[in-house]
Amino acid sequence: MLRDVFGTFSPYADLVDAVTHPPEVYSINNVRGCKMKEKPIEKLLYLDLREIYYGCLKKMKILRHEFIDENRMLTKIKEKILLIKITPGVLSGTKLCFPEEGDQGPTRIPADIIFIVTEKPHAVFFRKNSDLFMDYQIDLRQALCGFNMIINTIDERRLLISITDVVKSVQYFYFT
Q1: What is the DSSP annotation of the chain?
Q2: Which residue in 36, 64, 91, 141 has a CA-CA distance of 20 to 30 Å to 22?
Q3: Distance between CA 140 and CA 168 in Å, rounded?
Q4: Shortest CA distance to 38 belongs to which of 141, 101, 88, 109?
Q5: Is 40 in contact with 114 (CB distance < 8 Å)?
Q6: Which domains does the chain have, with CATH numbers?
Q7: pLDDT in tens, the chain (176 residues)
Q8: What pTM was estimated for this model as a whole?
């Protein structure tokens, strides 16, 4: 019942959290307040299929306000390079977070910067989750008699595929 009413098993969880992790405070010209964290900044990170297949290291340049004094009161816009490690096979929609890399300021906690992986369209292939597909148009003679097709893969291999059965409908072939 406590969980249904308070959202936790302990009605004192917020109080305990406030005591163990007190909010940061600021004081400017005798004005005091609690620092609030900025909303996350989300940016799309466009990757082509080769970058997704092999993985890569992307460099993203951001401009942000950074402290320039010891009192942490004055800021100046500076450039920063974020290195984003892309693991092979990363899925579209994956979020890559850089905690508190947003603008700094005396009254705020910097925002998290989140890059969302977005796949660029490819001329030949398309992905569904972790599977790679391609459309290949054939005529009636090829569908009935069979044919050979050559596929140039993302990793620069040339595959010769022999279709010897009658093609009745859409078929999917998996390549390794």
Answers
A1: -HHHHHSSS-TTHHHHHHHHSPPPEEEETTEEEE-EEPPPEEEEEEE-HHHHHH-EEEEEEEEEEEE-STTS--EEEEEEEEEEEEPTTPPTT-EEEETT-S--BTTEEPPPEEEEEEEPP-SSEEEETTEEEE-----HHHHHH-EEEEEE-TTS-EEEEEE-SPP-S-------
A2: 64
A3: 10
A4: 109
A5: yes
A6: 1-34 (no CATH), 36-131 (2.60.260.20), 136-176 (no CATH)
A7: 555 655 565 666 666 666 676 667 766 777 777 888 889 999 999 999 999 999 999 999 999 999 998 888 889 999 999 999 999 999 999 999 999 999 998 888 899 999 999 999 999 999 988 888 888 888 888 888 999 999 999 999 999 999 888 877 665 655 55
A8: 0.75
Amino acid at 42: E
**Which residue's structure tokens are 């816009």?**
77
